[in-house]
Amino acid sequence: MDLAAVRKIAKEALKGACRVCPVCDGRACVGEVPGMGGTGTGASFFANVQALKRYRLNLRTIHGVKSVDTGLELFGRKLALPVLGAPMTGTTYNMNAAITEAEFARCVVDGCLKAGTLSMTGDGADPAMYQSGLDAIQAAGGAGVPIIKPRSQEDVIKRVREAEAVGAVAVGMDVDGAGLITMALKGQPVGPKTFEEIRELAALAKAPFVVKGVMTVDEAELAVRAGACAIVVSNHGGRVLDHTPGSAEVLPAIAAKVKGRIAVLADGAVRTGIDVLKMLALGADAVLIGRPLVWAAVGGGADGVAAYLEKIKNELVSAMLLTAVPNVREVSPAILSPAPAEL
To answer: Can you spell out the DSSP letters for 72-91?
Structure first.
């Protein structure tokens, strides 16, 4: 599929919500929430971008790595690449109603499956948001991970059971959504979760439980102690709290403390296969991609999503060959060099 044509279609369909910029760095959409921007000044979105720019790759071509392996196992599934779709909803107010919740969920879940990987699906104030993700995952034979907002414990447990009923390979909660005012305005308040509440959810879930929105070492440790199977190092795409660090800033310290005891995923301004490799070198086992899958789905459906992920995979393969990395399960931070401070 021609991604340039996909972008062109998406740019027209998303007019007023997303400009489908050549470089998706949050500058054109500062403060546009609802929309695709970062909250407030956009500093947290920018921080994600800048955190990845602080690293460069060490080019190596005198070595014996002739081919590379981009596959890994996660949530009991073999994946073709260490990239998952991030949980996203709100097609009416974030995506110009260019696509319905059900269509978007199907496009991303099916597109990721075509590319040999999984997508997470989201939750929101409209019950159709979470349900659309469940329906898409059920139609895909359980190949997806529903992520639930930090609602009341009773409501979260109900949604965990619904995820299990459709055979989802894992289920989780984006604790970084704790301050979303729109949920409260629509009669569905969310808020922080205690350690005991996270532990209860991880214990009762029959599928692996994921905690998304971890940005500090101490909370990563709490997720491990609570029995979660994975964390996602994430500031919610810079959409919930202004002036946070970028995910790639905090990732190395978190991975140094908990990697090997829990799967460490990360998101935040990942746009290319090189970005993926940087995140892996900084300690992630796999990454999530969000915003680019919006224009890929709107402009090209499931095939557009699959084509975008194929592009990412090809870029990752090339970068691995040129940094002497044989597989994505053993990426050393030694492949990175710091960029000049002025960047």
So the answer is: EEETTEEESSSEEEPP---H
